[in-house]
Amino acid sequence: MPKNKRRNAPHRGGGGGSGAATSAATAGGPHRTVHPFSDEDASIETMSHCSGYSDPSSFAEDGPEVLDEEGTQEDLEYKLKGLIDLTLDKSAKTRQAALEGVKNALSSKVLYEFVLERRMTLTDSIERCLKKGKGDEQRAAAALASVLCVQLGPGFESEEILKTLGPILKKIICDGTASIRARQTCATCFGVCCFIASDDITELYSALECLENLFTKSCVKEKDTSVICSTPITVLHTSSLLAWTLLLTICPISELKKKLELHFHKLPNLLSSDDVNMRIAAGESLALLFELARGMESDFFYEDMESLTQMLRALATDGNKHRAKVDKRKQRSVFRDVLRAVEERDFPTETVKFGPERMYIDSWVKKHTYDTFKEVLGSGMQYHLQTNEFLRNVFELGPTVMLDAATLKTMKISRFERHLYNSAAFKARTKARSKCRDKRADVGEFF
């Protein structure tokens, strides 16, 4: 067969569709210039072979930031439609990349109307990927489910998502044969979705029980000594503890008292874990529980306070040589604050700036809630704080501050300007450090 005919032959497996799209897809041109089939003409199977979306990871890497500068809202929604279709692709890698692409876009933009129209499609895709996928695909699906609920906020739509996905998430969390990382992400997702959408109090209690059954396994008592299990599963127990603590913040007082009586004495055992993240999670959870307990009873008394403060002080001044310097520095910083919270009922206020606004984090409850949603949304947290009504209600920020396009443009720093600023700051630090070293050398020579 002549070369020119082979080059123009239809792509193997390509179904019927638009002739223009087929020729573009098979001509060897750049993927990004190819337009997908219309919703009316293309089935899911046909979309699987459309080269315009054959690399969804490229959108995940570029993200909506590029679209902000070079495109429009319509461009973003157009690409998202293609990615949503690819979440049902035959290839597991394509599905995973599509899930991550949709998640990155929804993390960086508030697209309430777009998501509302497609919530059933998205929920079906997530459900299928959680059930039939493995490992990384399940992680990507669970992460998208969290962001989906953040976009929709509390209400009927999120409740339906939780009713559909909740049992599947619980099954994966409790499945000992599933990937540890997938179970970890599902535990975080389950906690976030319940925090947003749980309307039935019995569902909330069931979620708390599921999560506490996990993290309490991290502590095994042998006689009078606490022996902490040091295994890869600790990351799952850490995420379960943090999700459980988040749900405690919305519990009725009667249930909160029961949980404190049942688990307050267990958490100090987790401070002896070999995993630094577990130690930090346990310390911050203890500080939050003390805050909640003292909020219910101002004269709250903890029986083993002296032993607890000794453990916290030891962690705040930890100098073990077998631990990494970065871990020790992070641990000491956190446990100094935890110790102050337990002993002096004090919290070091933090300030979060986003756009023209500021938010003051002045309690452990607020800090834990902020940290959880920051983990879910990543770098999009600041944008959501400005525009997402649900998050603004959670943090009591009031109505959205409306800014004109000119003001927004002046506030935004381009990627190149950011690079220049960081380079200049790095050079300044290097210069100051060199001068300091020179002074030390001069003093050494003098003596």
From TrEMBL:
A cellular-component GO term for this protein: nucleus
Keyword entries, A-Z: Developmental protein, Differentiation
Compositional bias (Basic residues): 1-10
Domain Interferon-related developmental regulator C-terminal as annotated: residue spans: 388-441
BP GO terms, sorted: cell differentiation
Keyword Protein biosynthesis set for record: no
Record Gene3D superfamilies: Leucine-rich Repeat Variant
SUPFAM superfamilies xref list: ARM repeat
Biased composition (Low complexity): 20-29
A Pfam cross-reference name: IFRD_C
Annotated stretches, region: Disordered: 1-41
Residue stretches making up the Interferon-related developmental regulator N-terminal domain: 46-343
InterPro entries, per the entry: ARM-like (IPR011989), ARM-type_fold (IPR016024), IFRD (IPR039777), Interferon-rel_develop_reg_C (IPR006921), Interferon-rel_develop_reg_N (IPR007701)
Similarity comment: family membership: Belongs to the IFRD family.
Subunit structure: Interacts with PSIP1/LEDGF.
PANTHER family: INTERFERON-RELATED DEVELOPMENTAL REGULATOR, INTERFERON-RELATED DEVELOPMENTAL REGULATOR 1
Protein name per Swiss-Prot or TrEMBL: Interferon-related developmental regulator 1
Organism whose genome encodes this protein: Phodopus roborovskii (Roborovski's desert hamster)
Gene of this entry: Ifrd1
